[in-house]
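Researcher: Go.
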Amino acid sequence: MPPIVSNQDLAEGVTRVARKRRVGIELGLGGIVLLAMLVALRLLTNGEDVGASPRMALLAVGTYLGMAVLLWRTLMRRPQRQSGLGAANRVTLARGVLVALMAGTLADPALLAAHGEWLFALALVALSLDGVDGWVARRTASTSALGARFDMELDAFFILVLCLALLLLDRVGPWVLAIGTMRYAFVAASCRWPWLADDLPESFRRKAVCVWQVAALMLALLPATPDNLASWLAATALAGLTLSFGVDVRWLYRHR
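Model: Structure:
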């Protein structure tokens, strides 16, 4: 005798299918926007000695696909109040498209050197959107642990991309990678010491340090910024980040 399926189980199954379809469409639209931006960049640099290349497109698309797959898998494992990504996560996804495009430029250092102002403009828009997703989440009552984690991890990757760009442009020495990899080193350390993965209290200091990191690295990327000043800006970002991580580790250790 076949198992009896209740109306509630049937409704939940239909809801899950509808949510998967909705999330898939939204992630697909993000990919289409990225492709459109890549085509536009290719047309804008057509005929120049240094232009957008297939390598850049492959890296940008690969970065976005990796982000989309991770987001999809996480969303499917957690119950959601909304049928799709939600308003705030859509804003974060839009920022993710910009960061993926910026990551793609790392495949062509010559393009970075020739069009540093474009990279700065993309980073500025991405930084501006960083505060919008939180505002939208509060206005739409759609705040969630997933949204906060998505935003935080995208911030970390954004900073890593900026550090790699500075290194490829030879504006700052290899030590700048300490800024971009510190978050990942912290996560790796939490596998050895689980108390490092405990929740931290809200902190304005942490948010301010994050904003300054991005702002300092962006200013260092500007072609008009002298190399000495670029190094000084990056050094202040590293010092602030190190101090902030030190404060957080001390708090976690005392409350373990």
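Model: The CA atoms of residues 65 and 94 lie 14 Å apart.
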